[in-house]
Amino acid sequence: MGHWHDHSHDDGAHQHGHTHGLVDPSIRRSRAGIRAVFFSLAALAIAALIQIAIFVLSGSVALLADLIHNFGDALTAVPVGIAFFLRSAQAERIAGLFVVLAIFISACVALYETIVRLIHPQELSHLWVLAVAGVIGYLGNEIAAQIRTRAGRRLDSPALIADGNHARADAYVSLGVVASAALVGAGVEIADPLIGLLITIVILKITLDSWRTVRTR
Known about the structure:
Alpha-lytic protease prodomain-like
């Protein structure tokens, strides 16, 4: 009565695609990771477009420098997205290390800029423009950080968690721009480099946390 069919010989064929009609978990994980990367980049792109519009109106060189920095940092999501597309654990580990290196470089750049400002103080201009752009940058980076970090924890992806930490580091930088504009506007000129030094310390802490995340998983 009836038929009994042994599926064991098909296991290898189904392992990388689907299992008895169900989507393979690695494919679901890959798609979820790519979605997280895409939506976080979309949030950053919207923030960048608004900042570009403000730059065109104001011509602020400081804002232009921040825009270039943010565009460069956004590129760290590319190797993470490629790793998810390839469904490669090795590629994901390499992407995680790349992100940690990018965060460390951001800290070094912030420290350099702080030292330059301490030695050669510069008068900030277009304070209200910097403040608005900083708020927009903070919101874009914080949204990206939330998307990447939550997806990274759900998918157990150290690379995606590290990239979320990277976005959060950039959010702190943008928040520092807002604080600098406010304090300098109130007459506290030394606030700009001091806030830069504080942000550098925060980014170095994020670098260490991200390194531990990537190394231990």
